[in-house]
Amino acid sequence: MKKKKFEFPSAFTVLFIIMVLSAVLTYLIPSGRFSKLVYDRVSNEFVITDQQGETTAKPATQEVLKELNIDLPLEKFTKEIIKKPMSIPGSYKRIPQQPQGFMEIIQAPIAGITDSVDIMIFVLILGGIIGIINKIGAFDAGIAALSKKTKGKEFILVFMIFTLITLGGTTFGMAEETIAFYPILMPIFLVSGFDAMTCIAAISLGSIIGSMFSTINPFSMIIASNAAGISFTEGLVFRIIALILAAAITIIYIYRYTEKVKKDRTKSVVYDQEKEIRERFLSNYEEGSKSEFTLRKKLSLLIFAMAFPVMIWGVSIEGWYFGEMSALFLTVAIVIIVVSGLPEKKSVSAFIQGAGDLIGVAMAVGLARAINVIMDNGYISDTLLDFFSHLVAGMNSGIFALMQFGIFSVLGIFIQSSSGLAVLSMPIMAPLADNAGVSREIIINAYSWGQGLMSFITPTGLVLVFLEMVGVTFDKWLKFVLPLFGIIAAFSAVMLVINTMF
């Protein structure tokens, strides 16, 4: 009898296993909470929620902040610069253990889907648009035209995509928005001779490096700086240098991989899936096809392409979230239907079929959120934060910086929200920098680089979502990215130590 070859489990199984392991942690790590403070603009009061969930109100004054050991100007709250609940230093208390058992595990995916419905709708609408564009043959004709123009200069495509997304990550935290790029760019990369992993790397690593080495990202760097009581411009030049160096390291890493695969296709980490992936993304494409790139097809692609700069403008300038982005792409879908001349019934059918192709991706988003639901309901994140704050107290500057980097890497697994981690941790961690004799910008960089580093590999983030979109298993991603993960971790540690010398 032939022994069955081991197949790495799907994204759903991996996420479910991690969800169960997270539930186990809620039995092992004590439950605890910091009291939280939030500003109520209507009553001009601070609302304090204690460890039992009971609330009290205090006048919104500088004296109250001083009394609570929060070393921040009152205007940070009254001007709504800090909006999320902030941990109150020294307020941590143990609470009765909140273990997440069988029923909580079963209910968590439902809660995760409910919490993620806005992202899921965005994904499904995006799939619907792609279904329409595929139906009219615009992608195939456009890819054929593009492949002729880029012949011999293919890596420029990788460099441009990586650079643009890195800029998006460092300026406004471009992350979930990149989901839209995979189904559009994957066929272009494949036709240009790259394997699927190169496309994944150009998009995902651009987002990860940009967000990790944030410079003016309001959702991480600016919020964290405000919560730490310093200006985000402190250390900005150093962060820009770190970003450029990290981006250079990453693009060289991708380039060396593409050269290795070009010389020997079997060196591709997704070599055994190449046929399956090409069928998935190029099922209607024929090399050398005479498919005419008509005016209607050009207009359809142009309208679709123009949605992306509008989306970036909305997110970075107007504060859009997934509701607004979904509305934008739904409008684009309607306009493309009109421009393409596709009959109404065929349009609706193509939209539904395209949305159906991304149902798996949408479900992966909800299941990833379920892991955070388990950990949130177990109240273990505050316990870890309190433990680590005592661990680093009194250390010398170099070791202190490295320990903070490691601490925020761990916390980044449990608290995925960059803004959430900032307001929860900075009031606790930032004053420790004063005791260690280093600038508070060290804490900011350790927070950004530590949490960002985990984005390379943590399944509770977007990793399994974009892998599910492309159809690549988690083990192949790890095989590709772990060497770079180690390089960037070492680079970040060195930069932090250098940072303590200035």
UniProtKB/TrEMBL annotation:
Topological category with respect to the lipid bilayer: Multi-pass membrane protein
Any single GO CC term annotated in Swiss-Prot or TrEMBL for this entry: plasma membrane
Stretches that traverse the bilayer: 12-29, 119-143, 155-175, 181-205, 212-230, 236-255, 299-315, 321-342, 354-375, 387-415, 453-474, 480-498
Location(s), subcellular: Cell membrane
Top-level taxon of origin: Bacteria
Entry keywords, A to Z: Cell membrane, Membrane, Transmembrane, Transmembrane helix
PANTHER family referenced in this protein's UniProt entry, alphabetically: ARGININE REPRESSOR, BASIC AMINO ACID ANTIPORTER YFCC-RELATED
Stated name of the protein: C4-dicarboxylate anaerobic carrier
